[in-house]
Structure to design on (235 residues):
């Protein structure tokens, strides 16, 4: 029959491992869900798409203006050279209108060309952002899949550790367990320490021979007079 101190030491090893696994589980759980990189790639795509809508709209407006000016030029040309208008003053007015419209058309043609270049740039940005989102999404999906697998492994390992812990805890009396829990809380998880020779491994203080012998006998739980931890031997 193992001594209570040794059983508690075994329990502490399981508790330490359990707490490590639980902290890894929390870390992994925190990584579940959308990453900042994914959200940023999605925002970039939305922005590129909105910019294309804006500059595409601007191009269509300019093209419409250009069509209107062309129609006006054609109509003015008909009246100017059609022979129906003979009044010199009216003809001169038409000529001015004709010249003005042609200058407007030149300006509009330049603006249309510039807007076309902008649209091409926007289309390229949109294609880039689409490709980038696809890449980020693919990497993220792979990461989530491996994360899910990791979570499964951690949960299984935690369940196994809890089973083991239960199996060990039933071997202990309620009083010993309560003392262990209390010391664990106060001593940063390290309630039970080994006695090596006559030295407490919790505080490095050397125990009197008689006390060390009591620890080796293991009939009762012995605590270190200096650090208060439960003392035990490895076997
Ligand atoms: Zn000590």
């Amino acid at each position: 029959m193992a001594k209570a101190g040794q059983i508690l030491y075994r329990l502490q090893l399981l508790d330490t491992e359990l707490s490590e696994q639980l902290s890894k589980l929390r870390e992994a759980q925190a990584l579940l869900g959308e990453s900042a990189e994914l959200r940023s790639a999605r925002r970039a795509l939305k922005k590129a798409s909105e910019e294309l809508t804006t500059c595409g709209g601007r191009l269509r407006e300019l093209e419409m203006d250009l069509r209107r000016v062309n129609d006006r030029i054609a109509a003015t040309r008909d009246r100017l050279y059609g022979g129906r208008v003979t009044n010199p003053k009216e003809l001169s007015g038409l000529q001015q209108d004709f010249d003005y419209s042609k200058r407007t058309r030149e300006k509009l043609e330049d603006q249309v060309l510039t807007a076309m270049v902008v649209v091409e740039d926007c289309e390229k940005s949109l294609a880039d952002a689409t490709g980038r989102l696809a890449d980020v999404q693919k990497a993220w999906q792979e990461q989530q899949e491996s994360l899910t697998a990791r979570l499964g492994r951690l949960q299984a390992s935690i369940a196994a550790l809890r089973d083991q812990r239960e199996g060990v805890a039933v071997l202990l009396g309620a009083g010993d367990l309560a003392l262990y829990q209390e010391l664990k809380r106060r001593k940063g998880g390290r309630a039970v320490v080994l006695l090596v020779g006559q030295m407490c491994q919790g505080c490095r203080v050397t125990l009197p021979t008689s006390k060390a012998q009591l620890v080796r006998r293991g009939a009762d739980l012995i605590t270190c007079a200096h650090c208060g931890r439960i003392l035990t031997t490895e076997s």
In short: Helices lie at 4-30, 36-81, 88-169, 174-186, 209-217. Strands lie at 192-196, 199-200, 222-223, 230-232.
